[in-house]
Amino acid sequence: MRKIVSFLVLFLLSIPAFCQLIYTQNLKQIAQINFPGQPVVKELPNGITMYYLKVNSEIYFAQVASYKKTLSQLFTNNVNQKIYDTYIHGNVNTAKGKLLYKKKISIANLDAVAYTYTSKLPKKELYAYSRLVFLNDKLLNISLLSRDSLPDNDTTLNAYFNSLKINIPANKIVTDNGPELLSRFGYVIGIAAILLAGVILVYKRSLQRKNLS
């Protein structure tokens, strides 16, 4: 009987961990990721879609930005890495933060980037843990923003990132793009940076209200 009770206690304690990411969000048909609840969805000009959800002291964030190729586009080496570097630089500068970490990774066998940066908050820094990948004319960024510095093996962080699934069959994935993509990318960076700054502002105000109370 004691074993049964112990098992039930452990099972009940484990329910929040298993049920935390309960809402599967489709990301423009190219991928899906699990949120703790239904996120806010913002459709923006130039094929940009943003998803975010604030839960306690954390913000779950995803963004898909579209880039349409043309037959006249030339292909160039390392264009994806240039896109990643430009995007990361734009986010860090907008947040008036500091890049702490950047590393090449693989997402579904695709070349991707993991990066972490800080954003200044009243009396506290905000840490942004992110993954960035480009495929089929789409730039996909997912982030978890937290008041706390999280270890690499953090359960919440890894559960969120590991819930990302690419929905496009491997034989239909295209990861290259033309050089003029970079010229269009400047506009998208501006919009994306402004939006992320807006999310951070909401976060700041919620913290200020808590401090006043």
Could you walk me through the main structural features you see in this protein, from its secondary elements to its overall organization?
The chain is built from four helices and ten strands. The chain is an alpha+beta fold. The chain has one domain (22-212): 3-Layer(aba) Sandwich (Protein Transport Mog1p, Chain A). The strands form two sheets. A seven-stranded antiparallel β-sheet has the order 3-4-5-9-8-7-6, sandwiched between helices. A hairpin with a 2-residue loop joins strand 6 (98-107) and strand 7. It is globular and about 50 Å long. The termini are far apart. The chain crosses the membrane at residues 185-203. Keywords: Membrane, Transmembrane, Transmembrane helix.
Please describe the structure with a list of short key phrases separated by commas or semicolons.
213 residues; alpha+beta; Protein Transport Mog1p, Chain A; 7-stranded antiparallel β-sheet; 3-stranded antiparallel β-sheet; globular; membrane; transmembrane; transmembrane helix
Mean pLDDT: 77
Uncertain regions spanning at least 5 consecutive residues: 1-19, 69-74
Strand content: 35-45%
Q: Mind telling me the CATH class?
A: Alpha Beta
Q: Quickly give the structural class.
A: alpha+beta
Quick one: overall form?
A: globular
Q: Using DSSP, what is the number of strands?
A: 10
* Rounded Rg: 19 Å
Name the CATH homologous superfamily.
Mog1/PsbP, alpha/beta/alpha sandwich
**What is the N-to-C order of secondary-structure elements (H for helix, E for strand)?**
HEEEEEHEEEEHEH
Strand ordering within the main sheet: 3-4-5-9-8-7-6
First and last CA, distance: 47 Å
* CATH architecture descriptor text: 3-Layer(aba) Sandwich
Helix percent reads: 25-40%
- Count the domains: 1
Biggest pleated sheet = 7 strands, antiparallel
Named CATH topology: Protein Transport Mog1p, Chain A
Specify the number of helices. 4
